[in-house]
Amino acid sequence: MKVNSSEYLRKVKPVLVKLRDRLLQEYPYASILAQDSVTKNYSVSKTSSGISMKPERGFVVKVFDGSSYAEYSFNEISEDTIEEIAVHIREDLMPLSDKLPEGVKKSCYAMLADEPMVFSDSTDYEIDPKEYGDESIMGELTKLSEAGRAYSDKILDCRAFASYQKYSKLFLSKNRDMEQNVLWTCGGIVAMATRGEEVKDSYRGFSNLGGVEILKEMSDNVNKVAQTALDLLESEPMVPGEYDCICEPGVTGMIVHEAFGHGVEMDMFVKDRALAKQFVGKQVASELVNMHDGALAAREVASYFFDDEGVLAQDTLVIDHGILKAGISDAQSAMHLGTQPTGNGRRESYSRKAYTRMTNTFFEAGKDKVEDMIASISYGFLLEEASSGMEDPKNWGIQCMVSIAREIKDGKLTGRICSPIVLTGYVPDLLKSISMVSDEVKLGGSGMCGKGYKEWVKVSDGGPYIKARIRLG
Amino acid sequence: MTDQILAALAKCGIDDYYINLAQDRSAQLFFIKKSLDMKRTTNETSATVTVFKTFEEDGQKYRGASTVKVQESMTPQELETMLADAYYAAGFVKNKYYELYHGTKEAMTEVKSGLTDKTLAQIAQGYAEALFAEDTQEKVFINSAEIFAYEHTEHIISSSGVDVAYSRKSAQGEFVVQCIDGQDVETYQSFAYNDWNPEALRAKAKSTIEMTYARAKAKSAPAAGNYRLILSGDYVSELLGYYSDRAESYMIYPKYSTFSVGCDVQGTEVTGDMVNLTLKADVPYSSEGIPMKDRELVRDGKLQLIHGGNRFAQYLGIEPTGNYNSMKMPAGSVTLAEMKAAPYLEVVNFSDFQMDTFTGHFGGEIRLAFLYDGEKVIPVTGGSVNGNIFEAQKTFVFSKELQQEERFEGPKSVCMDGVSVAGMNA
Question: What is the pLDDT of residue B426?
Fold first, then answer.
């Protein structure tokens, strides 16, 4: 089934066209991004359940005054307020640059490309969350939460949650009239086990570009999550050192996304904040590594047809057999750098600025079998459950955390677990050390990605199992 | 919009509700080096409506709740449909029954500060001027910055008598300092102020410039091992946030936390300073309309208060306090000079410091630290701190020197013994 378009955007579009035309009388470039979205969150645990719905309708106008860009975000419009908006832009927004600190000037840009384009499309789904209904979704989550808690009397709690977002976006400029309708769903299970003051938890996320068909996959995994939480109670601290490691796809994804992906966001090139800028055309990883990013590169939660600046989505080959080929960019950064935008200009919402952001980011599959990869290690660890990561585009320092390191001795898992684990080191050292890559790729998109500590957008990441040499602490 | 919502609630037969109306305006400036790259303004009005349904199942009484965000552009029919859907959904939320918080009608409160009489443009421009005032060198400079001036007005109405409102202005943002003298390195820094305090931002810019210059001289990671660790600035409040988090009613009721009033939050083997913390009210009312005031949380290592919103407070049979974001702590027992008299590793910048409330684990990758071996101070970079507060809290020593940020007023630094660091030669 195809996701429906927005009735609200259809109704408000004539008003937006009038606003665009009014602004084009005053500015050589004006565009409007309109958003109508509904996000619904469901959660069940032992002592707390909840349902929340966040419909969000709003607009962002971007104008060009001949040398620089300005934006106004708002969430109410009618025929009567068109002139009011134009006056606000002229009298409140544009003068913001009249008083700048000493020695600071305005940036000087060319006008954004605005080739004619008319576009409309929607993503597909199997089970519509709205039709499936709140009762059924809460019922499924309640069963999962209860099953997790019943797994062992050492399980303190088991929280099951799910979210979906259905969004419609409309992009209007002088020459563009684009519309898209997208639905994604994600969920998660967290089991908590306790020993004295310490509470250990295990988390598993689920996601898809589509509807609540993921609930089945969640129910298949609840016991595994509960068992891992129990295993973690017996975990030991890691002895710091450099080890041969196998990374499961979720950990591979975190390395792809946090350690490398943020470094090829080309708004960082503009600011001279990314070491990758100096490495385009050079080897940055083992020749076994091929890396992609793009809303068109995979069918996951960050798939769309055009970005928040009206640029069509793409599949960008970032690393080709270990060689850094290209970065990803929003429209303004591409203009600054003299490159082509890659459809990666994304906003947290209509009320936030667009930045270069990742979408679906992953390593391609290789040819190895996971069991052969484990068998190849005399002493090392299998790393599971990526928990958090932070980018360092400037220096390519790695800061990633995982919850589980399963000990491998003489090619076999011993059952011993270390937790929590901090991965550190220099990104190209890790990527160049990749010596085996499994034959199956898995992407996950249950979380959100920030730019620094804000600007949260939905992304997916992943890849195959990889074998690498990694410093653990 | 309030009248529209109340009419729709009545039409849907919804008797129990909360309405949180928000009006948000902002002025935003984005800089790349010494150029203004983008300017933005925002103006948004919305309301969050929480509807409650009381029902019984198998002899157990429940209070279900469902929240929906609504906007003025919604037609009366859309509004009714959304609220009716939310009310229906609330019937599947099986939370143990509780009474809604009972409040009263109060006059609008304007949170007075040095920002009150300034326009958003003046606030953004004033803080921009303060930030760039220290940007005077060629090889160490502000790489990029984002400055946001906000005005937030909130009106909270409930079916149980709450009718309160307040407005406040604030400034926040972030900046990155780059140094190209020797190594090319950078430092990220954020800031947030409820008052007109450009001198604080100027001082922060100055210290970040100095820190980044030092980082450019740092060449290697510290050797792996256990260190007497010093944390400063934001990391002190993030570490102490463990005590505030573990004392929240939503953590205690489901037994995620074992804290109870009077318990020794640092354990019973403390050889260093005792923790003293007060929760600081930074808004007049919580989102449930509960009047907020400063409250003592920990005195000499003993918990004084379990805090949080209405529902879990009722479950625990305690007074609801509202939810806090800020804390303060008195000065510690030693000066920074005394703290640094013995060998130490002082981490002044992590790539992303984490304090896990559940496991007690804290740490992160070291962007810049100063290592004192008893003879000289060496800047180091790389490696990671991997500590646990259950052990570290026994030896906390806090500085007499203080820091003042929006969310924390208290000692500038804390020192602790025997913290594991993964570094070179491991």
Answer: 44
Interface test with A, best of B23, B35, B40 (most A CBs within 10 A): B40
Q: In which residue ranges of chain B is pLDDT below 70?
A: 425-426
* Nearest by CB: B358 against A135, A201, A452: A201
Q: What is the pLDDT of residue B251?
A: 94
3-state secondary structure chain B: CHHHHHHHHHHCCCCEEEEEEEEEEEEEEEEECCEEEEEEEEEEEEEEEEEEEEEEECCEEEEEEEEEEECCCCCHHHHHHHHHHHHHHHCCCCCECCCCCCCCECCCEECCCCCCCCCHHHHHHHHHHHHHCCCCCCCEEEEEEEEEEEEEEEEEEECCCCEEEEEEEEEEEEEEEEECCCCCEEEEEEEEECCCCHHHHHHHHHHHHHHHHHHHHCCCCCECEEEEEEEECHHHHHHHHHHHHHCEHHHHCCCCCCCCCCCECCCCCCCCCCCCEEEECCCCECCCCCECCCEEEEECCEECCCEECHHHHHHHCCCCCECCCEEECCCCCECHHHHCCCCEEEEEEECCCEECCCCCEEEEEEEEEEEECCCCEEEECCCEEEEEHHHHHHHCEEECCEEECCCEEEECEEEEEEEEEECECC
Interchain proximity B358–A388, CB inside 8 Å: no
Q: Which residues of B touch A390 (CB under 8 A)?
A: 351-352, 364-365
pLDDT greater than 70 at residue A202: yes
For the stretch A382-427, pLDDT in tens is: 999 998 887 788 888 887 889 999 999 999 999 999 998 988 888 9
In tens, the pLDDT along A57-93 reads 999 999 999 999 999 999 999 999 999 999 999 999 9
Q: Are the C-beta atoms of A182 and A166 separated by less than 8 Å?
A: yes
| For chain B, domain boundaries | 2-212, 218-236+331-422, 239-328
Evaluate if residue A196 carries a pLDDT over 80.
Answer: no
The average pLDDT across A132-146 equals 95
- Report CB contact under 8 Å: A93, B41: yes
Residues from chain B that touch A96, judged by Cβ atoms under 8 A, are: 27, 29, 39, 41, 121, 124-125
Candidate from A261-270, A302-311, A369-378, B70-79 with smallest mean pLDDT:
B70-79
What is the pTM for the complete model shown?
A: 0.92
User: Which residue on chain A is closest to B178 by alpha carbon?
Assistant: A273
Which pLDDT does position B425 carry in this prediction? 61
Query: Distance between CA B266 and CA A305 in Å, rounded?
Result: 53
A237 contacts B386? CB cut-off 8 A: yes
Instruction: Give how far A378 is from chain B: nearest CA, Å.
Output: 18
pLDDT tier for residue A295 given thresholds of 50, 70 and 90 = very high
Interface test with A, best of B351, B356, B362, B380 (most A CBs within 10 A): B351
Residues of chain A with Cβ-Cβ distance to B125 below 8 Å are 96, 99-100
Cβ <8 Å between A106 and B35: yes
Tell if the CB–CB gap between A53 and B68 is shorter than 8 Å: yes
Give me the percent of chain A exceeding a pLDDT of 70: 100
Among A422, A423, A449, A454, the residue to mutate for chain B (most B Cβ within 10 A): A422
In chain A the domains, ranked by start, together with CATH numbers, are 7-96+118-233 (3.30.2290.10), 241-472 (no CATH)
Taking CB atoms and an 8 Å limit, are B44 and A50 in contact across chains?
no
CATH architecture group of domain B2-212: 2-Layer Sandwich (3.30)
